[in-house]
Amino acid sequence: MTQKETWLETLHDGFGQYFSVDNVLYHNQTEHQDLIIFENAALGRVMALDGVVQTTERDEFIYHEMLTNVPLLAHGNARRVLIIGGGDGAMLREVTRHKSVEQITMVEIDAAVVDFCRQHLPNHSAGAYDDPRFKLVIDDGVNFVNQCQEKFDVIISDCTDPIGPGEGLFTSDFYQGCYNSLNEGGIFVAQNGVCFLQQDEAVNSHRKLSHYFKDVSFYQAAIPTYYGGIMTFAWASNNPALRQLDVQTIQARFDAAGLNCRYYNPAIHAGSFALPQYLLNALRS
Length: 285
Ligand code: SAM
Fold this sequence. Notes:
Layout: E1 5-8, E2 18-21, E3 23-29, E4 34-40, E5 44-49, E6 52-56, H1 60-75, E7 80-85, H2 90-96, E8 103-108, H3 111-120, H4 122-125, E9 134-138, H5 141-147, E10 152-158, H6 172-180, E11 182-194, H7 199-209, E12 215-221, E13 231-237, H8 247-257, H9 266-271, H10 277-284
Parallel strand pairs: 7-8, 7-10, 8-9, 10-11
Antiparallel strand pairs: 1-2, 3-4, 4-5, 5-6, 11-13, 12-13
Helix pairs in contact: 1-2, 5-6
The structure holds S-adenosylmethionine.
């Protein structure tokens, strides 16, 4: 039996995860990053950028349902949504399920990620790129939020880790631009790493976001291929009540939206804002 090729993730020093590679669908250096999409028997198609897993067909629904439904149902009346990053198209797919949303802008720095994920990860976008409410902008998210005149109700930073082009999406410059790009009552959320292994990212984001937003916290979910425990999602708004909705209110909005999810439900929404004590202690220190 031939030895299968393996792909090693290089996000952390000293330990990590590997994937057997059954078939490489695409591997190239784009204008911004090393992009690989390959097939793995256990997880389906896998996409990685600069040696870090971005998404797998098998577990992506957890991440995308949580980064969309929690802010959108908490807001309750989101009409204009901005996605930063999100090149694989699954965040867009989940936002388009909300029929009350009227306009969706996605700002992705790397056109090649969009092109090759449309081709090789079709289940991620699932036709969402053809939604008439959708507008794609190829730009650095930092530039966009600091120059755009438009305002949004929810901003979702579906970014890579703070390496390479993703570094700018964890800066005060970016957070200030997002603050200025939100309507009254707006909510900002962002992928903010696995807090057991990337605790500094959460502490730094919390400190920087707190310069601009009155209410900054996190919510969480465990996504298997973002290994090491729960992933924290940064949450920022000017109204603390938005992250303290009771399950009944969330349930009513969930039912009205007619959503059909595989991970998200109103009880998970409400419970996801409970954080481990070690993180709470780190945020207070
Ligand atoms: N779910 C993944 C995670 O949690 O790491 C993120 C997935 S998505 C593929 C990340 C996207 O962010 C990529 O398409 C990447 O090209 C994009 N990106 C990185 N830096 C960016 C920037 N400064 N502005 C806009 N998009 C950026």
